[in-house]
Design goal:
7 helices; single chain; alpha+beta; 5 strands; 31% helix; 2 domains
């Protein structure tokens, strides 16, 4: 969506100077690139809104700007050519604009690839990502104990056992036969 750049000035003379500088830079009213609205432009609030909207300003914003013009301020709006918006904003800001009465737009939320759900919902990330976490649980808690010990679970492995709790080496010469209670063939 393209938004018009709008600045409001305390007097019609200040707005006229801003308008003249924009014309000197090649922008024209005929191409609907710049618009000047002063208290003398229209007699009613609806006439002011219509005059402001000619500068490609949204109607809801134009109604707020019209209140400022009814208080004696003057307005300059422009549709800057692609890539030149910042230059024109700096030019208009150098001429001491007054508050327009419209709230500035909210900044766009930053996207975080490490937390896409939080980014999509606009929520802050609760904990920074850690490579030492598995399913949301830390591998080692702050006290130095393992998560299993902190949760009151028995250790799954000891130094002489594999990951699933089975022994690596058996002291029984025939562990399979002993497990199934089969006689040993000799």
């Amino acid at each position: 969506m393209i938004y018009a750049t709008v600045r409001m000035y305390a007097t019609a003379a200040a707005a006229g100077r801003a308008f003249a500088q924009l014309e000197d830079r090649g922008l024209t009213r005929e191409d609907n690139q710049i618009n000047l609205v002063t208290p003398e432009t229209a007699g009613s609030a609806e006439g002011l809104v219509a005059a402001i909207k000619q500068g490609l300003v949204l109607e809801a914003d134009a109604r707020v700007y019209a209140q400022g013009i009814l208080r004696g301020h003057s307005l300059v709006s422009l549709m800057a050519p692609f890539g030149a918006g910042r230059m024109y904003e700096e030019l208009l800001d150098a001429l001491d604009p007054v508050d327009t009465g419209l709230a500035p737009p909210l900044p766009e939320p930053a996207w975080d690839d490490a937390a896409p759900l939080s980014s999509a919902l606009g929520l802050p990330v609760i904990l920074p990502p850690s490579p030492y976490q598995f399913m949301g649980l830390p591998a080692i808690i702050a006290s130095g104990a393992t998560t299993s010990a902190a949760l009151g679970l028995g250790e799954l492995a000891r130094h002489d056992f594999t990951v699933f709790g089975t022994p690596r080496l058996s002291h029984d010469p025939a562990p399979f036969s002993a497990l199934l209670h089969l006689p040993l063939l000799t």
